[in-house]
Design goal:
Order of helices and strands: HEEEEHHEHEEHHEEEEEHH
Number of strands: 12
CATH superfamily: paralog of FGE (formylglycine-generating enzyme)
Structural class: alpha+beta
Distance between the termini: 97 Å
Radius of gyration: 25 Å
Strand content: 5-15%
Helix content: 25-40%
Largest sheet: 4 strands, mixed
CATH class: Alpha Beta
CATH topology: paralog of FGE (formylglycine-generating enzyme)
Length: 374
């Protein structure tokens, strides 16, 4: 009897000892996690609130697209549309902002994290990662890199800490939508995105006018994919404020750097819509594209690309928008005629056709450019 009692006492003591050890271990983990969060908050100060700004867009009628019959992306033909007043983020969502989101939404797992890989441009990946952590894809310049995700842009060995002001990439449509909902916003439609990018100008290729200007956007210079000469000062991604505002409404990084998700469905022009897979429109082009379309896409305000909602890559990010229903009522009080005005009145001259050859012969269009440029 005494032996059994002593055995029970020993077992109870052991259980209490292990319970105490587990309690201490969990407490240490919680304290270390809180300390880590404190360190991250200190690290993100000055990189979060500054970039979390929006610009009011009054909306109205305007022309979307471009008059380039050779375009195959759906930006041709030019067509009239209208958007209601809204707000648009001045900058794309940065890595710092998305880091804040991940801290608050601990259980949220991005699409790239679920898949275990994402696409990275091959010449950005180290030899070690190429041989150990990556696999070839359908396009020879892309590598499916294991572990490439929002906080490791080039996979193992890279980290978000060094790029807090860069646009967050490796985000799917689902990830972008989840972030926008978390901050009380939403993804912009394609029409809203293009309206904000144009900044009131119509019929021109770029947010600032019709003539290409150096040092206004991050695009590819050189022979793709082997050589990027970096004439704009950057190879691969750049900070969202690396270039001046791209239009007269102080919108940054609309063109180049990284494609941006919108909430608009993408459809091929010559295929029955009922037969097409679910895709969404991306806008803006990226550092892998060129100003003249010699490689990949032509980087201009109207251009677009369609991707499946689960697609993630090193050159895909997003920015947020928000509806502004109160602006209409305020404007109608000031001017009862608001809403009846055509803000995209037809020009006396016909729409100009944007051909690739015009980009190399600016003398042909100098007179038009002087009128359209800022």
């Amino acid at each position: 009897m005494r032996k059994s009692m002593s055995c029970l006492i020993k077992m109870a003591a052991r259980c209490m000892m292990w319970t105490f050890r587990i309690f201490v271990y969990i407490s240490v983990l919680k304290l270390s996690f809180c300390f880590r969060n404190f360190q991250v908050d200190e690290l993100l100060k000055g990189h979060y609130d500054f970039k979390d700004a929006m610009r009011q867009q009054l909306g109205g009628k305007f022309s979307i697209g471009i008059n380039d019959p050779k375009s195959y992306t759906g930006e041709y033909p030019v067509r009239g549309t209208e958007v209601r007043p809204f707000y648009m983020d001045i900058y794309p969502v940065t890595m710092a902002q998305f880091w804040k989101f991940k801290i608050q939404k601990k259980k949220y797992i991005t699409t790239a994290e679920k898949k275990g890989y994402s696409f990275v441009l091959a010449n950005l990946v180290s030899d070690h990662v190429k041989t150990t952590w990556s696999a070839e894809s359908a396009d020879p310049w892309w590598l499916a890199v294991k572990g490439a995700q929002w906080d490791r842009p080039e996979g193992p060995g890279s980290h978000v800490r060094d790029r807090l002001d860069y646009p967050v990439v490796h985000v799917s449509y689902r990830d972008a939508k989840a972030y926008c909902m978390w901050v009380g916003k939403r993804l912009p439609t394609e029409e809203e995105w293009e309206f904000a990018a144009r900044g009131g100008l119509r019929g021109v290729q770029y947010p600032w006018g019709d003539r290409y200007k150096k040092f206004r956007m991050n695009v590819w210079h050189g022979k793709f994919p082997d050589e990027d000469k970096g004439h704009d000062g950057w190879k691969s991604l750049s900070p969202v404020d690396a270039f001046p505002a791209q239009n007269n409404q102080s919108m940054f990084d609309m063109l180049g750097n990284a494609w941006e998700w919108t909430s608009t469905r993408y459809y091929e022009r010559v295929v029955d819509r009922k037969l097409q897979d679910l895709k969404y429109v991306l806008k803006g082009g990226s550092y892998m594209d060129t100003r003249d379309g010699a490689y990949n896409y032509v980087v201009r305000t109207s251009n677009r690309m369609g991707q499946e909602p689960t697609y993630t890559a090193h050159n895909v990010g997003f920015r947020c928008a928000a509806s502004a229903p109160g602006i209409i009522e305020d404007l109608k009080k000031k001017d009862p005629r608001y809403g009846n005005k055509d803000q995209a009145a037809k020009s006396k001259r016909g729409p100009r056709i944007h051909r690739k050859s015009d980009m190399y012969n600016p003398s042909k269009t100098n007179n038009l450019l002087k009128k359209e440029e800022l």
